[in-house]
């Protein structure tokens, strides 16, 4: 593996601390969906967005060499206008350069990208448009610009962890707290609330710009990450591993979908039966995710972190708990440390119960920091029912057999 210097500003400014429930509160503000005028105004204080050229908010990142001192870094798009999340260990990317159209074209077709940009005029007239044939996906007048920022956050966080990994064996773990999400977006269009494939764009960017040839993508959203799946289905250098609820939207991701041509074997789909929860996912991590990653030997791990497998989430019926997400974050961070110099970036995907979403993301941050989980303050074991562990075991055995694990 060869590391190339980053062309993007990526060192981080500022040390800001936040612990305990301040974190959860801050994330509730940040990880929500209220994209009101306050948030957009707040971002404009530091960024103006436009097409076709680089946008710089300030040269803060270039001036400050403290990136490696952080233990967690995150980027937000859009910023929510509050800065409660401040800690020595947790820093927010102070600037975000939106992705360029060229960055998108490594994953999406030009016809789609330019078509969406043109559709913004219509969205301006109507306020909101629903995009035909894309499942429940809509656009507002600012969707195109905001989606460029979301993809740009992921790329900037790749820069940050790669740069940090050059100077420390414990680079910060990164988390792109972004909207819109991305893992359903297919090369030719948007899908399932997703506009651009943020994680796929970041994977190509890591290869192209940093020389990180082998990318391991874990997608634990309750839905199949069909967009990411399709983008790399024939690519032997990008391993895509998705766990999702069997039969849920969009219906793809069957266990025997394992890639094609040179990419055969570098896609692993593991549909889990409804009701699968903490025990199921911990077993999947130990028996499937970890051995797969160890065999693949990635240069970076990217994670489609969907929080809609939480038992309280209204869109599906898995039984993950806040504690499950803590364990996943902790285990994946450890895996990245063992296999790829700690280079690891999480991308926010689904999550539709704002309370379980915010608590689970906050607990993921605690896992990154090595702090104890506070899941027991939120999780209620009384609402859980028995997991279908016999069926889970069958699915795991089938995946292991198909992939010679
Ligand atoms: Zn989802």
Q: What can you see in these coordinates?
A:
The chain is 38% helix and 14% strand. It is α/β, with parallel strands linked by helices and 405 residues long. The strands form three sheets. The chain has an eight-stranded parallel sheet, with helices on both faces. It has a two-stranded antiparallel sheet with strand order 1-3. The protein has a two-stranded antiparallel ribbon with strand order 5-6. The longest helix is centred in the middle third of the chain and has 23 residues, at 143-165. The two termini are 25 Å apart. Zinc ion binds at residues 221-223, 306, 308, 349-350.
| Biggest beta sheet summary | 8 strands, parallel
Kindly state the percentage of residues in helix. Answer: 25-40%
**SS elements, strand count:** 12
Strand order of the largest sheet: 4-2-7-12-11-8-9-10
Span of the ends, CA to CA: 25 Å
**In angstroms, what is the radius of gyration?**
19 Å
N-to-C SSE string, H for helix and E for strand: EHHHEEEHHEEHEHEHEEHEHEHH
Proportion of β residues? Answer: 5-15%
Bound molecules: zinc ion
Could you report the average pLDDT, rounded to the nearest whole number? 84
What's a concise summary of this model?
This protein has 12 helices and 12 strands.
Key structural traits:
alpha/beta, two-stranded antiparallel ribbon, 405 residues, 14% strand, globular, single chain, binds zinc ion
